[in-house]
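Morning. Coffee machine broken again, so started the prediction first thing and wrote up yesterday's gels while waiting. Chain of 823 residues, entered below exactly as on the submission form.
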Amino acid sequence: MTVSPRRLLISALVASTGLAGTAAFAQSNPAASTVAHPAQWPAAASPAAITDAKTEAFITQLMAKMSVEEKVGQTIQGDIASMTPADLEKYPLGSILAGGNSAPGGDDRAPPKAWTDLVDAYREEALAPRPGHTPIPIMFGIDAVHGHNNIVGATIFPHNIGLGAMRDPALIRRIGQATGEEVAVVGGDWTFGPTVAVPRDDRWGRSYEGYAEDPEVVKSYSGPMTLGLQGELKPGQTLGAGHIAGSAKHFLADGGTEDGKDQGDARISEQELVAIHAQGYPPSIDAGILTVMASFSSWNGQKITGNKTLLTDVLKGRMGFQGFVVSDWNAHGQLPGCTNTSCPQAMNAGLDMYMAPDSWKGLYDNTLAQVKSGEIPMARLDDAVRRILRVKVKAGLFERVAPSVQGKLDRLGAADHRAIAREAVAKSLVLLKNDGVLPVKPGARVLVAGAADDIGKASGGWTLTWQGTGNKNSDFPHGQSIWGGIEQAVTAAGGQAELAPNGQFKTKPDVAIVVFGEDPYAEFQGDVAHLGYQLGDKTDLALLKKLKAQGIPVVSVFLSGRPLWVNPEINASDAFVAAWLPGSEGGGVADVLVAGKGGKPARDFQGKLGFSWPKRADQGPLNRGQPGYDPQFAYGYGLSYAKPGQVGTLAEDPGNVAAAGSVDRYFVDGRLPAPWRMDFLGAGSVKTIDAGAQENARQVAWTGQGMLAIHGPPVDLSRQTTGDMAVMVRYRIDAPPTAPVTMSIGCADDASCAGTLDVSNLVKAAKPGEWRSAKIKLSCFQAVGAKMDHVTAPFVIGTTAPFGVSLTEVRLASNEGDAICPK
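Came back before lunch.
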């Protein structure tokens, strides 16, 4: 009898992991209200310029001409990766977006001209004359998270966590203005920012998108950033040249979820919801923000996207918001009773525009039917359409099909914008420790080690791609790495600088500057179980100690999207600088660290912590004012040359945590990160080989029926699946297959939970002896039965006859337009 790969997987892993019969457990939500009481909320009001008589009269006349089909179309936004301009002939959508991994032709490095051509193609189709068609310009939206981070050559500003450390609202407004202009020159007229989240648990993967843990900083920044992006609204006038519409987000409490889980549940009182998470919205609304994005997350178990008391009664009522509310990426589909293609509940709750990137077509058809049946009242639809058209009028889309600065590509990465970014980098640095080694003295011999020459790592997530991975310095043609800035400054001061990532030097230096920290991530991929840095694998600490052992003073420049427990690294450093994620202008670091010939650096440290720094790795929520507040460095801490301070030896007990288990890295650099194991089951063998590095690969040889499985305790990959992640495998075919080859994702305690795909064609297409990579969407496995919330075997490959393959890497990766479902 032939045993199927799926059955072999289930039976073998039950035996090898002992996970059969794992019991489920129930979590109970607190019995807390999900009904907001508007009188308890701060009052605000959109400026009268948004609803001036001339604008409202124009909208009234326009709506009188529109069919119900055209009205419904205005409420739906599709993504360029899932539609073409020609689709607008049949589906009159109101908006188009380019999501984090969407680009012209699927090319993340597409030139600026390709972007302007693409936007123009959509605009021309939307305005094309057709019988019975009311020409209404589309609105093109994009995530300019820290500058226009989607375009090669744009200025990449520090992420918000660094900007919050500056405590400089005036500079925030200048950053907003520069960002808006760089979006406009390539055709965009709407960005999904400012982010006014207040992250309260730094384990959240989006912590770096927030300015601070305390609403005081967020409140002081939201108005200036709005004015920077949009300019000041004036009655009867559109946004000025180079200004674009903004979107305050994510309404509400996205930074307050339980355990810092992305798209999670904020289990808090209404009082806390108001006092902490609502404070950034009134200043932005008062400044004229044109749109607000509703959050994926929930409040006491109810999704915000379907909470009428928040969207309608509070935001549009008490806060007087007159623009429109847009959802996040298919967030409406998460409401009870909804799907991505049908959700009248969201519009009836107060949502005005659905962000339906790949579900727009079915959503349009269903929403149209729901309006015609009365399930969505016509008055609600008309209110949504009026709000959308109001924003389009104010954004100038009816008067100028494209922003008046479009095509002025010399403003993309312009020198004055880069100067603003460099100033922001310098002001964002927080000096945690300095035992007299900083500033680097004129004439010094300086060793620069670690990731100092990696602009991509310094920029973090939301940089050219959603996750910010795979970027090279050549992708930042106007940028300067931290190494580049230090070399320039040291040389100008009469010294010598040497770059050696591994710390190996030719001549003993006077001081070493080591740049290290987190690799790029975005959203849920950054969620962590604790705040320990490199627990169980402290390679960066080893480098610091190696240099110290040679009698070299060490300056650590730490790159991170949140405060992390790095007490051992701080102890091994003579100076320690929290540089956050500074972006493309690394010279700003040198402006503070390196003294010029006069003996002083260009700038002193001025950054102050906007997030409390942990004393232990197990300190999850750690915020000023909370009971038992006990940080290593308190909110507001920051040394300077003018105001130095002493830091003694710090305790190196991480607290009650274990080494981090990986949910997305299964086999990397010849190692299986905890908690994963690799086993071969059946006829064949596995051996360790060298593939460009010592013992960094596994060679698998089948002689008959068998299966290679990477497995471990259960992990939940459901969020990664909805987030369009993929299994990435780097492999080499050593012996072509002689029978079908399958790949599976499964679990050990339920025969019905595995999903198996035939990858024979993919394997046969590979030339034997050549290394190549493949990405297979998690959703492909889910579609054939894999239960992604209980995965114990994230990678299984099997066949029934001789076959040979070598592997160097198996992990999850972002789908950047290159992931497939095998056929």
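The chain is about 25% helix and 20% strand. Going to sketch it on the whiteboard this afternoon.
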